[in-house]
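Reopening this ticket.

The earlier resolution said the output was attached, but the attachment link was broken on my side. Pasting everything inline this time so it's all in one place.
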Amino acid sequence: MEEYINKIIQGNCIEILKELPDNTFDMIFADPPYYLQLPKGKRLKRADGSEIIPVDNEWDQFKDYDDYDSFTESWLKECQRVLKPTGTIWVIGMYHNIFRVGKIMQDLGLWFLNDVIWVKIGALPNLNCRRLTNNHETLIWAVKNKNCKGYTFNYQLLKEMNNGKQMKDTDWVFGLCKGNERLRDENGIKSHPTQKPLKLIQQVFLTSTKKGDLILDPFMGSGTSAVVAKALGRKWVGIEKDNKYIEVANERIKKQKIC
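Inline output:
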């Protein structure tokens, strides 16, 4: 494992996960494809006339729900295998996929600790005005199986972070990536369409890891997990198949100082 620590491995996450040893990671954070089912090339306009480019990337495309479920079961099964009995796994998603992901997790025997609601400040309004504005994402927090004990939960730290009150699963209110935090290319286009805010990932890591713990992100994307892990003194392993994202992530990681 030493050759992989604090590095991004390029390739298909399922195939790479199969090469990793059992019971290795203290925590896994997974931000998988959501299978948004948006038509390729569709463009929307905000009220001010500015254009919205939706997520229609190849990595979010699946033939149907069966195809998505098969993919989800494959990577989750491998994540369950490489997770320590004292480790925890977090999976984030939206209404498009999180219920399917949750069912598969339970079918595999993963044991839920919480479903956490990330309330998104600055969420995109519903432009068609035909349903409620989607203002949150869900994070499932689970252990390897129902017999697992001794996992990390930094209860007191979270209480201190929450003004002396016990942290609730709905206290997770963070803005979307904007301004300097949002990575963009030379043309002003987002470097990754689903970049998560640093503060959200920081709270995940502070909830369930200690300094020196080893964290796996099987869908590394723009490198947010690695940046946060490095800043907090955690070790990490990332998996990403798109070389463009790996280059962006490695550049971010180089600039991040260790606390």
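Reporter confirms the inline version is readable. The helical segments are 13-19, 65-82, 98-108, 155-161, 198-208, 224-231, 243-255. The chain has one domain: 7-255.
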